[in-house]
Amino acid sequence: MGQTLFDKIWDAHVVQRKEGYPDVLYIDAHFIHEVTSPQAFDGLRRRGIRVRRPDRTHATADHNVPTLNQHLPIREELSRRQVEMLTRNCEEFGIELYGLGHPFQGIVHVIGPELGLTQPGMTIVCGDSHTSTHGALGTIAFGIGTSEVEQVLATQCIWQYKPRKMRITIDGQLKKGVVSKDIILYIISQISASGATGYFVEYAGSTIRSLSMEARMTICNMSIEMGARGGMIAPDETTFAYLQGRRFAPKGSDWDRALAYWKTLYSDLDAVFDKELHFDAADIEPMITYGTNPGMGIKITQPIPRLEQLSEKERPSFERALQYMSLQPGTYLLNKPVDYVFIGSCTNSRMEDLRLVANFVKGKKKAPHVEVWVVPGSKQVEEQARREGIDRIFEEAGFQLRGPGCSACLGMNEDKIPPGKYCVSTSNRNFEGRQGPQARTFLVSPLTAAAAAITGRIVDVREFL
Which domains are seen in the chain, by residue range? Predict the structure, then answer.
């Protein structure tokens, strides 16, 4: 029987396997940041041990960093302490840090692929749930807890039970105005925020193969939002072209050897998955969430569901979500005024995202009552945007281009949405208080966010294309 892509990579990294116990899995790359690593380093100190592979440990500051005046001391005390602690820990344990001011600094799941640190066939972990982003390059990548961060720092291995395998196949051509963020929001709306719990998902089909690398990253990024352990896409010529020439990608004969291996990384024709799902790209339209988890999504032209359309089990959380969002069942979100637009996060802060937005807003002005933040995913993205003149397009439109960081994706830094305000966001989560206490979030694609910024309301972007 053939193997799935997941099986090929997982089995190649098993150090020890024993019936009834988790596998001991070797980890090729360990990304760390300032939030989930301090306790892990303290644990190493207490035990008097060093980091096993500092050369395979990559550090950056992203969650707590300000996105304005990054050259000044961080104002929030907790954020400042965590970033300072990361700096000290990396110095003590010999880990290279891409901290504030470093040309490679940025969101951990943006800098890995753009630097070529993320490569097909790898196992990758990070103390962050959206580590699944790296799966877009044909890796097994998943988030871990702080105690597991310590485990990997100490041993370069981790204990893990092998998850079940799911394949989601999407075929067909996308409609005008539909982008990768709409694809993943559509999938989650169809199977729910827990529909892939216990599975590792491989995305396949002609629609997926037609996507750019950065679009694939958006899809794998949000795998966790349907409960999956992670998501992955088989590497192909798009992947190889993306990686070639990147700073830490193989060079010369090493590239040839790596490429030969990477070309073996696909699911065999007779490989068996525990679950298979199929979707038609023609059914996908611009999407938007209305509730407080990413599974509460609808096509932008559809009304919010009515209570009678839901099961008895679903109704209490549905009612609570609509109360939090101050919305009514059966109503439409189209033309609803918004207060903030946030374009950024590890989901949608790459160059393609910024170019997409810039092309839409060029020559236009934002609505007077809307505040628009554009936060690049890395220093390299920011610099490239300036080289291309995208910063001037945003400035003329009234958008604020900030420095790189997680920003308003989560209320852990200075960039918070005020209580009760509505934010159209390209981030990955719309939980209660996620973007700030009592903030209300609509998850959308960069295109839909750009249209909301210009009109000041929720609109179907297809009307403007």
Answer: 5-275 (3.30.499.10), 310-460 (3.30.499.10)
